[in-house]
Amino acid sequence: MHLWQAVVLGGVEGLTEFLPVSSTGHLTIAERLMGFRLDDAGLTAFTAIVQAGAILAAVVFLRADVVRLVSAFLRGLTAPAARRTRDFRFAVFLLAGSVPIGVVGLAFKDQIETTLRSLWFVGIALILFSGVMWWADRVGTQERSEDEITLRDTVLVGVAQCIALIPGVSRSGATMSAGLVLGIDRVAATKLSFFLAIPALAGATLLEVVSKASDVSRGVGWGPTLVATLVSLVVGYAAVAWLLRFVAHHGLGVFVRYRVALGAVVLVLVGVGAVSPT
Q1: Ramachandran category for residue 184: left, alpha or beta (phi over 0 → left; psi -120 to 50 → alpha)
Q2: Nearest Cα to 196, choosing from 16, 17, 32, 34?
Q3: How many angstroms from the chain centroid is the CA of residue 163?
Q4: CA–CA separation, 243 vs 251, rounded Å?
Q5: Crossing angle for the helix pair 51-61 and 63-78, to the nearest 10 degrees
Q6: How many CB atoms lie within 10 A of CB 84?
Q7: How far is CA 10 from CA 7, 31, 50, 226, 233, in A?
Q8: In angstroms, how far is the first alpha carbon of the chain from the final one?
Q9: Sign of CA dihedral 101, 104, 108, 111
Q10: What are the CB-based long-range contacts (under 8 Å, 24+) for 217-221?
Q11: 3-state secondary structure 209-252
């Protein structure tokens, strides 16, 4: 992988990780257009590892909240009184909501990294899940704030996050949609999506670093991987800040239209043979 390719792919990851447009889907499309084989083990690991930049971007942007929640959780481990605080309970909610994607991700890891990496799946998922996002945006009452989020809400949103293991669905799109259907307002649903992304993406990244380090070394290389991760951090921070401001005043319609258009283009290009699906 050339340095400019690493920069572009890192930018794509950082820009799309938290927008409801599917970062994995965009990376898959960009990697194929650059001529990479999507079934290459090193490229698959690269795609997962560069998410670390986006994770750090979310942690840095939400650092005050992250420090508060982690501190409350640690205090609650030894002090019974601390377990009655809202911050401790919410930290526990987030841990519980992170379990489903860990279980499903490990159970279907091979299929996710091979069969589902086809551009056919990406294009179809981009279009089909757009309908879910449109519906969620329409039916969401947005009558509940962040302080009213319950354990049930967080687990259900965490289950919805599992659907995003299919490239093209979008992790943030799935979690934001689930939050809206549960009546949570857009800003609170978006922040919940960010919070659930941190353990999910951190776990996936750590697993790839530990299990696929040799594949990265033999394939893409650690130099381009680290460059892409750094770019992902910078661009991801800007994307997080922009999205929270955007959803405070706008619905998901612009993302729905974009996803449908991109999905249609992908399917046409693959269908006419202009681009190989893998």
Answers
A1: beta
A2: 17
A3: 11
A4: 11
A5: 80
A6: 10
A7: 5, 11, 7, 9, 8
A8: 17
A9: negative
A10: 217/42, 218/42, 219/40, 219/41, 219/42, 219/43, 219/45, 219/46, 220/1, 220/42, 220/43, 220/45, 220/46, 221/1
A11: HHHHHHHHHHCCCHHHHHHHHHHHHHHHHHHHHHHHHHHCCCCC
> What are 184's strand-pairing partners?
144
> How many other CB atoms are there within 10 angstroms of residue 230's CB atom?
18
Q: How many CB atoms lie within 10 A of CB 249?
A: 8
Which tokens in the block code for residue 17?
A: 């990780």
State the Rg of the chain over Cα: 18
Q: In sequence order, what are the beta bridge partners of 144?
A: 184
pLDDT tens-digit series, residues 126-148: 999 999 999 999 999 999 999 99
Tokens 């249609």 locate to 264
DSSP class per residue in 135-155: HHHHH----B-GGG--HHHHH
Give the tens place of pLDDT for each residue, 150-183.
Answer: 999 999 999 999 998 888 999 999 999 999 999 9
> pTM (2 decimals)?
0.89
Structure tokens at 106: 């490990």
Q: What share of the chain is helix, strand, coil (3-state, %, to 5)?
A: 80, 0, 20
Going 28 to 29 to 30 to 33, the CA torsion angle's sign is: positive
d(CA 229, CA 224): 9
